[in-house]
Amino acid sequence: MFDILKVCGQNIRQYRKKKNLTMRQLSQRLGITGAYLGYLERGQRNASLLTLAKIAEILEIPPYTLLRDPKDEFEKAIDGLLDLLIDLNDIKYITFLKEVLDAYLKLKDT
Question: Is the pTM of this model over 0.85?
Protein backbone atom coordinates (compact mmCIF):
# COMPACT_ATOMS: atom_id res chain seq x y z
CA MET A 1 0.00 0.00 0.00
CA PHE A 2 1.29 3.47 -0.85
CA ASP A 3 1.68 6.31 1.62
CA ILE A 4 -1.30 8.53 0.80
CA LEU A 5 0.05 11.44 2.85
CA LYS A 6 3.32 11.52 0.90
CA VAL A 7 1.55 11.15 -2.44
CA CYS A 8 -0.87 13.94 -1.57
CA GLY A 9 1.96 16.17 -0.37
CA GLN A 10 4.00 15.59 -3.51
CA ASN A 11 0.97 16.43 -5.63
CA ILE A 12 0.26 19.61 -3.67
CA ARG A 13 3.87 20.73 -4.18
CA GLN A 14 3.87 19.79 -7.89
CA TYR A 15 0.66 21.65 -8.70
CA ARG A 16 1.58 24.62 -6.48
CA LYS A 17 4.83 25.04 -8.40
CA LYS A 18 3.01 24.57 -11.70
CA LYS A 19 0.82 27.55 -10.75
CA ASN A 20 3.96 29.52 -9.78
CA LEU A 21 2.73 29.95 -6.22
CA THR A 22 5.12 30.14 -3.30
CA MET A 23 4.37 28.26 -0.12
CA ARG A 24 3.67 31.61 1.52
CA GLN A 25 1.18 32.64 -1.16
CA LEU A 26 -0.70 29.34 -1.03
CA SER A 27 -0.73 29.18 2.76
CA GLN A 28 -2.08 32.74 2.98
CA ARG A 29 -4.86 31.97 0.51
CA LEU A 30 -5.69 28.83 2.51
CA GLY A 31 -5.60 30.62 5.84
CA ILE A 32 -3.01 28.22 7.27
CA THR A 33 0.58 28.72 8.34
CA GLY A 34 3.47 28.14 5.97
CA ALA A 35 4.81 25.59 8.45
CA TYR A 36 1.57 23.58 8.27
CA LEU A 37 1.64 23.68 4.46
CA GLY A 38 5.22 22.43 4.63
CA TYR A 39 4.09 19.52 6.80
CA LEU A 40 1.36 18.72 4.27
CA GLU A 41 3.78 18.85 1.33
CA ARG A 42 6.20 16.52 3.12
CA GLY A 43 3.39 14.10 3.98
CA GLN A 44 3.81 14.66 7.71
CA ARG A 45 0.26 15.85 8.44
CA ASN A 46 -3.20 14.70 7.46
CA ALA A 47 -5.20 17.48 5.79
CA SER A 48 -8.95 17.62 6.25
CA LEU A 49 -11.20 17.08 3.24
CA LEU A 50 -12.19 20.74 3.38
CA THR A 51 -8.53 21.80 3.26
CA LEU A 52 -7.86 19.48 0.32
CA ALA A 53 -10.93 20.84 -1.48
CA LYS A 54 -9.75 24.42 -0.92
CA ILE A 55 -6.22 23.55 -2.11
CA ALA A 56 -7.66 21.98 -5.25
CA GLU A 57 -9.87 25.01 -5.86
CA ILE A 58 -6.94 27.42 -5.55
CA LEU A 59 -4.76 25.23 -7.78
CA GLU A 60 -7.66 24.87 -10.24
CA ILE A 61 -7.59 21.07 -10.30
CA PRO A 62 -10.17 18.43 -9.38
CA PRO A 63 -9.71 17.38 -5.73
CA TYR A 64 -9.07 13.72 -6.63
CA THR A 65 -5.95 14.85 -8.50
CA LEU A 66 -4.23 15.38 -5.16
CA LEU A 67 -4.65 11.69 -4.32
CA ARG A 68 -3.44 10.18 -7.61
CA ASP A 69 -0.39 7.95 -7.52
CA PRO A 70 0.60 6.79 -11.02
CA LYS A 71 2.27 3.38 -10.84
CA ASP A 72 3.80 2.88 -14.27
CA GLU A 73 4.56 4.67 -17.53
CA PHE A 74 1.04 4.10 -18.87
CA GLU A 75 -0.57 5.67 -15.80
CA LYS A 76 1.91 8.56 -15.90
CA ALA A 77 1.04 9.16 -19.56
CA ILE A 78 -2.68 9.09 -18.75
CA ASP A 79 -2.11 11.53 -15.88
CA GLY A 80 -0.15 13.82 -18.20
CA LEU A 81 -2.95 13.75 -20.75
CA LEU A 82 -5.52 14.41 -18.04
CA ASP A 83 -3.48 17.36 -16.75
CA LEU A 84 -3.27 18.78 -20.26
CA LEU A 85 -7.02 18.47 -20.78
CA ILE A 86 -7.71 20.06 -17.39
CA ASP A 87 -5.39 22.95 -18.26
CA LEU A 88 -7.16 23.47 -21.60
CA ASN A 89 -10.53 23.51 -19.81
CA ASP A 90 -12.54 23.36 -23.01
CA ILE A 91 -14.86 20.56 -24.12
CA LYS A 92 -14.00 21.08 -27.78
CA TYR A 93 -10.47 19.73 -27.18
CA ILE A 94 -11.79 16.65 -25.42
CA THR A 95 -14.34 16.06 -28.19
CA PHE A 96 -11.65 16.48 -30.84
CA LEU A 97 -9.27 14.10 -29.06
CA LYS A 98 -12.04 11.49 -28.77
CA GLU A 99 -12.82 11.80 -32.49
CA VAL A 100 -9.14 11.37 -33.38
CA LEU A 101 -8.82 8.30 -31.16
CA ASP A 102 -12.02 6.80 -32.55
CA ALA A 103 -10.79 7.33 -36.12
CA TYR A 104 -7.39 5.85 -35.28
CA LEU A 105 -8.95 2.76 -33.70
CA LYS A 106 -11.21 2.23 -36.74
CA LEU A 107 -8.21 2.43 -39.09
CA LYS A 108 -6.19 0.12 -36.84
CA ASP A 109 -8.93 -2.54 -36.97
CA THR A 110 -9.10 -2.57 -40.79
Answer: no
